Each structure stands twice: as C-alpha cells, then as structure tokens.
C-alpha cells in the first residue's frame, strides 16, 4: 500500500453507498493542479471519514492524506483485470469555496512546511488577482 497527499478543489460528491452492514463509501472528485496542469481524480471516503467529508462543500480546497491500493483478478472471460482505489485517511479544508484563504482543520494533522508551501502555491494559482496590486 502506498500513501500520498492530494490537494485540490472538490468538484463533485457522490451519494453514500452502504455496501455491507459495516462498510459504506462515498465518491469524492477533486480537481488537482500540479505544475500548471490539472488532474481530475476520483477518490473515496469510507466509514467514519464520510461523516466528516460531508461537511465539505463543492468548491472547497482540501488537502487529503490517502492510501493507494490495487488488486487484480480474473473476470468470467479469463482476462486479468486490475482496479485501484484511492482512499482518504485524513483531510482538512484549506480554502472554503476557493475564495478566502482561511484554514479550517477538520481531521488530520497540520501540514509540514514543504506541504504548506505547496498548498500556498496552489491557493495563489486559484486566486491570481489576490496579488498585491495596491498603489502604495
């Protein structure tokens, strides 16, 4: 299992699916910008994280700590099939509605200095007009 951090704007949230009595999941779609290029990623929240992620709004920028897992299996035609899951382990909101730069800790730890700089750069890309344009 690999771990990664994904920072991006929430653009869609699916309905919560009850898979078994003890397992439920919710799809979250994030638009991530890396080095000026965008990536749209489908990640999932499971069980207790769902209750917290439902407090996040469309347009909020979040930082997620995720685990990346994959499995392979043979389908009924005998073909090898691989699927991957990116599952949120913790997250926090960086920007509400991609408008103001208020940090709001929902779940997880504050970022390292390096991660905080990456997030600050991301926020600057979202709001380029926020640069200092005062006449004095």
Describe this structure in words.
By secondary structure, the protein is mainly beta. Helix content is 15%, strand content 51%. The chain contains 2 helices and 7 strands; from the N terminus they run ββββαβββα. Strands 1, 2, 3, 4, 5, 6 and 7 form a 7-stranded antiparallel β-sheet that branches. About 7% of the residues have low confidence.
Order of helices and strands: EEEEHEEEH
Distance between the termini: 53 Å
In CATH, the topology is named OB fold (Dihydrolipoamide Acetyltransferase, E2P)
The overall average pLDDT, rounded, is: 81
The CATH architecture would be Beta Barrel
Instruction: Give the fraction of residues assigned to helices.
Output: 10-25%
Number of domains: 1
Helix/strand/pairing category = mainly beta
Share of residues in strands? over 45%
What attributes characterize this protein structure?
136 residues, 51% strand, OB fold (Dihydrolipoamide Acetyltransferase, E2P), 2 helices
List the helices and strands and how they pair.
Layout: E1 2-13, E2 17-18, E3 24-34, E4 37-46, H1 48-53, E5 61-74, E6 80-95, E7 104-107, H2 113-126
Antiparallel strand pairs: 1-3, 1-5, 2-3, 3-4, 5-6, 6-7
Q: How would you summarize this macromolecular structure in one to three sentences?
A:
The chain has 136 residues and is mainly β. It has a single domain, classed as Beta Barrel (OB fold (Dihydrolipoamide Acetyltransferase, E2P)). The chain has two helices and seven strands; from the N terminus they run ββββαβββα.
């Amino acid at each position: 299992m690999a771990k990664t951090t994904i920072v991006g704007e929430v653009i869609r949230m699916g309905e919560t699916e009850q898979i078994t009595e003890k397992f439920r999941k919710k799809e979250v779609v994030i638009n991530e910008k890396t080095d000026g290029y965008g990536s749209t990623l489908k990640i999932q929240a499971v069980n207790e994280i769902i209750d917290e992620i439902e407090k996040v709004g469309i347009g909020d920028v979040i930082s997620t700590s995720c685990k990346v897992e994959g499995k392979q299996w043979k389908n009924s035609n005998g073909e090898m099939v691989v699927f991957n899951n990116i599952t949120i382990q913790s997250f926090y909101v960086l920007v509400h509605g991609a408008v103001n730069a208020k940090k709001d800790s929902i779940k997880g730890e504050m970022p390292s200095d390096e991660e905080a700089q990456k997030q600050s750069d991301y926020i600057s890309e979202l709001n380029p007009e926020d640069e200092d344009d005062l006449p004095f």
